[in-house]
Design goal:
The protein has 202 residues and is an alpha+beta fold. 32% of the residues lie in helices and 17% in strands. It has a 4-stranded antiparallel sheet. A 3-stranded mixed sheet has the order 4-3-7. A hairpin with a 5-residue loop joins strand 5 (81-85) and strand 6. The radius of gyration is 24 Å and the shape is flat. The protein starts with 16 loop residues before the first strand and ends in an 18-residue tail after the last helix.
Length: 202
């Protein structure tokens, strides 16, 4: 977020919230059903599938040709779609890339209002603590003047988080390589020599 200057406004007011039912009634959001997919319709490659686990489990796929022939009414996700599941503990994630198949019981929340930021909407859905229909879930709007800035900041944070995770994974791999190698005697570790002092340095 180095590209953004964070400045206090000197005022603080409660966030503007609105229910998904009201937003759907105004056409500001659309709720699209997930596709019912049998176990024998999954493939080893094709469009990735986001199901009830919201992408936290093993990635599954539906072949592109199969999708066109066997699911003609289904729609792929678009970047920024919010994928959610209801129940006693609602959960939601943002599909930043799009071109995924959403498997029932998960559903798609497609936002059409610039004051609705996907990551904020997903967080608000995940914060629901009582079992009520999705139409009664309240989500926050952001001021239109700040909508693009907060989207950019969230994108930067997401990229930094992904880069940090990759670096941590590389460090884990390095640690395993070194400890395994030293224990097996296949490598040795020796302190690196300090560079020679520069001539004339005091």
């Amino acid at each position: 977020v180095d590209a953004f200057a964070v400045e206090p406004t000197g005022t603080s007011t409660p966030a503007t919230t609105v229910t998904l039912g009201a937003l759907a009634g105004d056409g500001d959001v659309r709720v699209l059903p997930g596709t019912r997919i049998r176990d024998d319709q999954f493939d080893v490659d094709g469009f990735p599938v986001i199901g009830a686990d919201l992408g936290t489990g093993t990635t599954r796929f539906v072949d592109r040709i199969r999708f066109a022939l066997e699911f003609p009414a289904a729609k792929l996700t678009e970047p920024g779609d919010v994928i959610f599941v209801g129940g006693a503990t609602p959960r939601a994630v943002v599909d930043a890339e799009g071109s995924s198949v959403v498997a029932a019981p998960a559903r798609v929340l497609r936002l059409a209002d610039r004051s609705l930021v996907p990551e904020i909407v997903a967080a608000d859905i995940a914060a629901v603590q009582i079992r009520v229909p999705w139409r009664r879930w309240a989500v926050r709007r952001v001021p239109l003047a700040q909508a693009e800035s907060i989207r950019g900041a969230i994108a930067a944070i997401t990229a930094d988080r992904a880069a940090t995770r990759r670096r941590l994974a590389h460090l884990d791999d390095l640690e395993t390589l070194l400890t395994t190698g030293v224990a097996a005697g296949s490598i040795t570790l020796n302190p690196a020599e300090s560079p020679a002092p520069t001539k004339g340095a005091s």
